[in-house]
Amino acid sequence: EADALDVSNCTTDKQKVLFNISNEAFTAASKALIPVSTYQLAKPYLGGASMEFLQRLAASNVNMDLMTFKNLDAAVLLGLTVNEVKNLLGTNLPDLKSFENTTIIKNWITRQLQSELNTLNIGLVGGRADTSTVPPVTTPAVTSQTTQTTKAAGARIQGDFAGLTFLVFLALLISSHQIVI
């Protein structure tokens, strides 16, 4: 009937040792799903959990709270996929949005593809661009238009708009780079 130990001040190495001890004590020999009761017993020590354990936990429908989630080993948390986080948090997934500005969650978001973050439907932004969905950049062909105007004296004045556009562009380019000619 003892309360769980508070290991929040322990180093990551110490948390890993404590997690391994708790994992041996609470986990069945099976390498399949982890019962919710085992999760609840090991919860204070999850800061030292391995990637393999968290992946098994993700498949176990445990509904991890955000305080436990954000206190996972940073190297392990950053390696979790969007789907693994979705499965770990379960019904607590919407709470992830309220923690999006914490350093560890921001770092996790920036490692994910934005298209995958969008599948969570909670409005997380800041993920990497999906290169397969970015449309290719095309440069429109420049066509030359020539306009002819006749004055009363019959003289023709030709205006080459493409040439004029090029000169304006060149002038802007020179002034923006402050190049002296």
Automatic annotation (TrEMBL):
Record's keyword terms, sorted: Cell adhesion, Glycoprotein, Membrane, Signal, Transmembrane, Transmembrane helix
| UniProt entry tagged with the keyword Membrane | yes
Q: Which InterPro entries is this protein grouped with?
A: Mesothelin, Stereocilin-rel
Where located? Membrane
Q: Does the keyword Transferase apply?
A: no
The organism's superkingdom is given as Eukaryota
List, alphabetically, the Pfam families matched: Mesothelin
Membrane-crossing ranges are 161-180
PANTHER family, sorted: MESOTHELIN, STEREOCILIN RELATED
Name the protein family.
Belongs to the mesothelin family.
Official protein name in the record? Mesothelin
Q: In which organism is this protein found?
A: Characodon lateralis
